[in-house]
Design goal:
- The structure is a single chain.
- With 284 residues, this protein is α+β, with helices and mostly antiparallel strands.
- Among the domains are: 77 residues, Alpha-Beta Complex (Type Iii Antifreeze Protein Isoform Hplc 12), CATH 3.90.1210; 119 residues, no CATH class.
- Strands 3, 4, 5, 6, 7 and 8 form a 6-stranded antiparallel beta sheet that branches.
- The radius of gyration is 44 Å and the shape is flat.
């Protein structure tokens, strides 16, 4: 056989094999994509569920999820019935295990309290509650004002201190939700998430002082050392500031030059005397 013909046939065979491989891969991918992906049945919310609600069978439904189920999704409704909701769940949303309180812990506010923490309720009014804008999940500082113990309640002796910083609000008022229009509701009682030690401080402050809540940015978690202030400091005359002393501790006085002198020689016979007198300029 001609060598040139053999080379042409071998090249044609190689090209045909590559084309057949590409067609096989494309057809295989098309067939694989057309195959139905197995679905997983997960438990979902049949309606909007508010925080603190104890789930019942009427609150649940099933939802088919294509492919792998979300991490922590509940597959059996029996694992969700009777558990309290610790975060809002909306209709059609799969119910995750970390959105529910442990079995037997019940519902309401108690189910949202983390282990080792306490919910401390303090009485507030519209002004103390930052005009009603204290809502669950916000962060506040707690400041108190009053007269220190052991001192007479004299007008002008009121002092203020920041006792707690970056405290989470669990609930405000009797309802821990916003109203239908999404506006904050008027609050009378605010529950703060605190440690047992902080709860004792709040209990003392509620009985002896006036409490004020101060809103803070939730991204600002820095605890700053804040010095207290007194009523007298507000009205202090800052214009009268003491004059700073010289660095050396004393003021250098100008040195007066020595007065100019002139002398007069008096000869009395064999006796000779000399008298010194200051010039008129030196006497000034």
């Amino acid at each position: 056989m001609n060598r040139r013909l053999a080379t042409i046939l071998l090249s044609a065979f190689i090209v045909a094999a590559l084309c057949a491989f590409v067609v096989y891969r494309l057809v295989g991918l098309r067939i694989a994509a057309s195959k139905p992906v197995p679905a997983t049945s997960v438990v979902a919310a049949a309606q909007d569920i508010k925080i603190g609600t104890v789930l019942s069978a009427n609150d649940l439904t099933t939802l088919q999820v294509q492919g792998t189920a979300p991490k922590g999704a509940i597959l059996d409704a029996k694992s969700a019935v009777g558990r309290g909701v610790i975060a809002n769940i909306y209709a059609g949303e799969p119910i995750l295990d970390n959105r529910l309180a442990p079995m037997g812990s019940g519902g309401g506010l108690a189910a949202t309290i983390q282990q080792g923490m306490r919910a401390c309720a303090i009485k507030v009014d519209e002004v103390v509650g930052v005009a009603g804008f204290v809502l669950p999940g916000m962060r506040v500082d707690v400041i108190v004002s009053g007269t220190p113990p052991g001192t007479q309640a004299v007008q002008g002796d009121t002092q203020v201190r920041t006792i707690l910083q970056n405290i989470e609000v669990l609930s405000a008022g009797t309802d821990i939700q916003k109203d239908a229009e999404g506006k904050p509701q008027q609050v009378q009682v605010v529950n703060l998430l605190v440690t047992p030690e902080q709860a004792q401080v709040l209990a003392l402050a509620s009985n002896q002082t006036h409490i004020q809540l101060v809103l803070r940015n939730p991204l600002d978690t820095k605890i700053d050392p804040v010095e207290g202030s007194a009523m007298t400091n507000i009205f202090q005359d800052v214009a009268k500031t003491p004059v700073k002393a010289h660095l050396s501790g004393h003021v250098n006085k100008p040195v007066k030059p020595a007065p100019q002198m002139f002398s007069v020689v008096v000869i009395n016979g064999a006796q000779r005397t000399e008298e010194k007198f200051a010039t008129p300029e030196g006497k000034q």
